[in-house]
Design goal:
single chain, 95 residues, mainly alpha, 5 helices, 59% helix, elongated
Length: 95
């Protein structure tokens, strides 16, 4: 018997999108944010109790923004293999 997989099939962002995002392309960064949107919302969801004592879930918008900002800054600082290889070659040439 086959297992049913109810998870949505997602594709990873392509290399060209990641490369463009690391170079600061706004459209590519938005694609990266869109890819991780559900995960960020899951991390930013908090359990709260309302006035009547019922449990409810709410997205902490400040935390969501911080996570998105962190993802953007890490994406811009991300070094791809080609960048890493050229940096090590330049260091070898210098000294």
């Amino acid at each position: 018997m086959k297992k049913m997989n109810f998870r949505r099939e997602e594709t990873l962002p392509s290399y060209s999108v990641i490369l463009a995002a690391t170079e600061g392309n706004v459209a590519a960064i938005n694609l990266i944010l869109k890819h991780y949107e559900r995960y960020i919302l899951k991390l930013a969801t908090r359990m709260l109790y309302d006035k009547t004592g019922h449990l409810c879930y709410e997205v902490d918008e400040a935390l969501r923004r911080r996570l998105e900002t962190k993802l953007i800054t890490k994406t811009l600082a991300f070094k791809l293999d080609s960048d890493w290889k050229s940096d090590t070659e330049n260091k070898k040439k210098r000294g």
